Amino acid sequence: EAGVTQSPTHLIKTRGQQATLRCSPISGHTSVYWYQQALGLGLQFLLWYDEGEERNRGNFPPRFSGRQFPNYSSELNVNALELEDSALYLCASSPRLLGVGTEAFFGQGTRLTVV
Amino acid sequence: AQSVTQLDSQVPVFEEAPVELRCNYSSSVSVYLFWYVQYPNQGLQLLLKYLSGSTLVESINGFEAEFNKSQTSFHLRKPSVHISDTAEYFCAVSLWGGATNKLIFGTGTLLAVQP
């Protein structure tokens, strides 16, 4: 069974540009989560999508946005890139009720570098 | 608000020595607890989880963690570490239901096993 897949693996952008990151969840999972792992800051919750809707977002500015498609894959968009957006972006998926005997499965991440 | 504290940012240890990685959490509601491991340049993998029942949970590679409700702790232990255990370890709590379906992570502990 395929795990969570993310693309691209690496992405280099210049300040002010837009970045688009993609995630395909495990088959049967309806929830997708995005996390930012910046150096020295641990994993920060960004967004949670389920059944095509944004259900919750972390403490990030509106230029971080995304969507979930009918096939439950998801896209994270970061507009007006800033240098501090450089980080590893991790996507995870789970069935609808996280924690009720389930776990979140993570992808390998997309390394975004803003220069 | 819920939070997870991993006091040790880095734990150096010699091969075959025992190790304990500390995790404390704060929450006003019941939570599920997880330990994830991140090997260099990879995503997160679930190491073990506590959902209910026995407070001592074990992983297949020799790690164990004990849920202590009175001390709000979920420390990770291994009696004898290997070089291959070198990785970053994240403790997490999950919140579920309604708009709070997410994992909250600690800042991580780098386990550095030396020969």
Would you mind describing this structure in some detail?
The complex is a heterodimer of chains A (about 120) and B (about 120). Chain A is mainly beta and about 120 residues long. Chain A is built from no helices and 11 strands. In chain A, the strands form 2 sheets. In chain A, strands 2, 4, 5, 6, 9, 10 and 11 form a 7-stranded mixed sheet that branches. Chain A has a 4-stranded antiparallel sheet with strand order 1-3-8-7, with no helix packed on it. In chain A, a hairpin with a 5-residue loop joins strand 7 and strand 8. The model of chain A has no long low-confidence stretch (mean pLDDT about 90). Chain B is globular. Chain B has strands at about 5, 10-15, 20, 25, 30-40, 45-50, 55-60, 65-70, 75-80, 85-95, 100-105, 110-115. In chain B, strands 2, 5, 6, 10, 11 and 12 form a 6-stranded mixed sheet that branches. Classes of the chains: A mainly beta (about 120), B mainly beta (about 120). At the A-B interface, strand 4, strand 5 and strand 10 of A face strand 5, strand 6, strand 10 and strand 11 of B.
Give descriptors for this structure:
heterodimer; A: mainly beta; 7-stranded mixed beta sheet; 4-stranded antiparallel beta sheet; globular; B: 115 residues; mainly beta; 6-stranded mixed beta sheet; 0% helix
